[in-house]
Design brief:
Chain A: Keywords: Membrane, Transmembrane, Transmembrane helix. The complex is a heterodimer of chains A (282) and B (402). Chain A has 282 residues and is mainly alpha-helical. Chain A contains ten helices and three strands; from the N terminus they run αβββααααααααα. A three-stranded antiparallel β-sheet of chain A has the order 1-2-3. The N terminus of chain A is likely disordered. The chains are: A mainly alpha (282), B alpha/beta (402). The interface between A and B is large, with 47 and 64 residues.
Chain lengths: 282, 402
């Protein structure tokens, strides 16, 4: 398109009287009809005007988005600061920590990133405000367009969905990693020889599920994604089943035999059950 | 919050003055009828002619003939669901009962009380009545018993707090009133948060408060088995609680302390059967080394990982975990617990195979004729020697650590 426009612009020249002149392939000047030139000029001007109009509609929306994001980020930082002070004052970490000592169920402390539950709550509040800023900014951006706008029809749904998709992707990765580690540790402590394989299987199951959910959320691929997900998910499950049931048959049978032989100690090594081994851990 | 409804209130009874003068209150856990009767008979024999106040949650009891005990039934509103260990609710209940009955000291006894000897009961009472704030029972156990205590609880408590009770989580305690109050205050935070099963560390609390601690010989005793918990759950619960307590008392134990002299020597019951089968434990460790190496490398420094690599390649009969390596591993796990390097559940799960490796090494050493207690004492010394490492990394966790 740009190439052809460039060609047109270079082919058209203006003579000394101001008349547009086009040169033939043999170098002979040919005078162009003035109405053609006017039409082209008019078309170009109108296009430029439309672009500028769209830009004029677009820019306030962008500015509104940026302002909303910046404002809510600031509010979020302030809220996180206040929360951190208040929670530190009421010894929130200690109160949450009190519940940890005997609880087998993971509590808030387990999910705290690297410092404390107070930091976790403060960060959650901060990112909550940032997310709110995004949502409000996008709605301000949306209102800058008419319903029939092409940009509004195609860009905005992706913009709004991409926030949710990002969250889904982030959460999916976290859950996949958490579950993979849980399965790995549990399987090793249960003396399963294929612990790593099991852990990897669980990790990829969750990642595939996450990827399918993200694509579905972004409305990309449609039925193809659903079909591909079904095939891939089912394939992984089938592979795991076959690998455990057939491919690793000997390993599984050896592992199971060992477990059966040592059932009181290895499968559930409770001190009471270990009486046969006369081993008491507590 | 855990409270107790004591019935009847002794102050309204004839002879209440005599009971007040008794001073000592014996708090019993819920026991089967036979066990309760046996315990009451032991108490009668241990304290003949003494109007001892005994509280039980099991309702009114028929006393042995000639008994001068005064049994006070009570209904615990918020009882602990872990009868195998003294939990927060037990301390709250004991202090409230002591306060209500104006007792000056408390004997807080755990499950399977009937197996506690008359001499042990007498020793505990004598110690607590001699104005000792905390009296801890020391049991005679076999070399294959109380292994979590020997591997982690005792060495860590001794190294960090400078106190020597061999069983920091003993199920039989003698408490002065102020010690009972102190423990009830700490326990109250847990029960208020609906955590009546939370573990408390009386030895650490007493050390922190500067109270006197005494250990008395309690002989052989049947320790109540933890019900419904496998090794992973048990280790996670106990080690997690200890690590959290160490974290909470960091300001205290980082100061250097002198180790108290030991007055009681634990007697080890000799094993009566063949050498222990350590192969499953070694298998678990080797499997874990190939699978959990990535997780361990987040927690342990390269030198410890190298030590573990050598261990994983060692033949079964030469499998020995050096005491310094085990001490370093436990300290690094305490640090990782504090820093949340890993999810805490995962961290404690990753400790289990390493603990089993230590158990295998310890049992193999004992089978060669080394006295178990001697090895445990050497291990505790290794923990003491390595304490500066813990203090240093606690203060500067990001410092280079080869």
């Amino acid at each position: 398109m740009w190439h052809s426009m460039n060609h047109l612009m270079t082919a058209l020249q203006v003579d000394s009287t101001g008349q547009p002149v086009q040169y033939s392939n043999y170098g002979q000047p040919v005078v162009v009809d003035q109405s053609w030139w006017q039409q082209i000029t008019s078309a170009l001007t109108q296009s430029t005007q439309r672009v500028l109009e769209n830009l004029a509609h677009f820019l306030p929306g962008v500015v509104a988005l940026i302002i909303a994001l910046a404002l809510f980020t600031g509010i979020g930082a302030l809220a996180a600061f206040i929360l951190r002070k208040v929670l530190t004052a009421i010894k929130f970490d200690d109160r949450v920590g009190n519940g940890k000592s005997s609880s087998v169920i993971p509590n808030l402390q387990d999910w705290a990133p690297s410092h404390s539950p107070t930091a976790l709550v403060a960060r959650t509040a901060f990112w909550g405000f940032v997310l709110l800023g995004c949502v409000i900014g996008i709605s301000a951006f949306d209102s800058a367009y008419t319903g029939s706008s092409q940009v509004a029809l195609f860009l905005l749904p992706y913009l709004t969905h991409s926030v949710g998709a990002l969250l889904l992707f982030f959460a999916g990765n976290l859950i996949a990693r958490f579950l993979a580690r849980s399965v790995l540790i549990g399987a090793v402590n249960a003396q399963l020889q294929y612990a790593r394989f099991l852990s990897l299987g669980v990790k990829w199951l969750v990642l595939v599920l996450t990827a399918a959910m993200v694509l579905d959320h972004l409305q990309i691929g449609g039925l193809v994604v659903e079909l591909a997900f079904g095939i891939l998910f089912g394939g992984i499950v089938l592979t795991l089943s076959l690998a455990v049931g057939l491919g690793s048959r000997e390993i599984v049978s050896r592992s199971l035999e060992r477990n059966v032989e040592r059932a009181p100690e290895a499968v559930a090594p409770t001190p009471a059950a270990e009486a046969g081994e006369s081993l008491r851990h507590f | 919050m855990a409270t107790t409804n004591t019935t009847p209130d002794l102050s309204s009874h004839p002879g209440a003055q005599t009971e007040r003068d008794a001073g000592l209150l014996v708090s019993l856990p819920s026991l089967p009828p036979d066990s309760l009767q046996a315990t009451l008979a032991h108490l009668t024999e241990a304290f003949p002619g003494r109007p001892l106040l005994v509280t039980t949650p099991d309702g009114a009891q028929t006393l042995p003939s000639g008994s001068s005990l005064r049994v006070v039934p009570y209904t615990p509103v918020n009882a602990s669901a872990s009868p195998w260990v003294l939990a927060a609710a037990d301390f709250v209940n004991a202090y409230e009962l002591a306060q209500k009955n104006q007792a000056q000291s408390v004997l807080l006894l755990g499950g399977e009380t009937q197996s506690l000897s008359v001499d042990a009961l007498r020793s505990l009472a004598m110690s607590v009545e001699a104005k000792t704030d905390l009296t801890v029972a020391c049991y005679d156990l076999g070399p294959r018993e109380g292994l979590v205590n020997s591997a982690i609880l005792y060495p860590v408590t001794r190294a960090l707090y400078g106190v020597r009770p061999r069983f920091p989580l003993a199920v039989d305690l003698g408490l002065s009133l102020r010690m009972a109050e102190k423990l009830a205050t700490v326990a109250g935070r847990y029960t208020a948060g609906n955590q009546p099963d939370a573990l408390l560390w009386p030895v650490a609390e007493a050390a922190l408060a500067g109270f006197s601690i005494q250990e008395v010989e309690a002989g052989a005793r049947v320790l109540p088995p933890p019900a419904g918990l496998d090794l992973n759950g048990l280790l996670g619960m106990i080690a997690g609680s200890l690590f959290a307590d160490v974290d909470a008392k960091a300001a205290f134990w980082q100061r250097a302390r002198n180790l108290q002299p030991r007055l009681v020597q634990m007697q080890t019951i000799p094993p009566n059967d063949a050498p222990a089968d350590v192969k499953p434990m070694l298998d678990t460790f080797r499997l874990a080394y190939t699978n959990l190496h990535e997780l361990w490398s987040l927690v342990l420094p390269p030198a410890s990982l190298l030590g573990l690599k050598r261990l994983s390649q060692a033949p079964p009969n030469a499998f020995r975990m050096p005491d310094a390596l085990w001490a370093r591993i436990v300290y690094d796990f305490i640090l990782a617990y504090r820093l949340r390097t890993l999810n805490r559940g995962h961290l404690l799960g990753a400790l289990t195979p390493l603990y089993l490796a230590w158990v295998a090494s310890h049992l193999q050493l004992v089978d060669t004729g080394v006295a178990p207690e001697k090895h445990i004492e050497t291990l505790a010394t290794a923990f003491e020697a390595d304490k500066p490492y813990l203090v240093s990394r606690w203060r500067w966790p990001d410092r280079f650590n080869p």
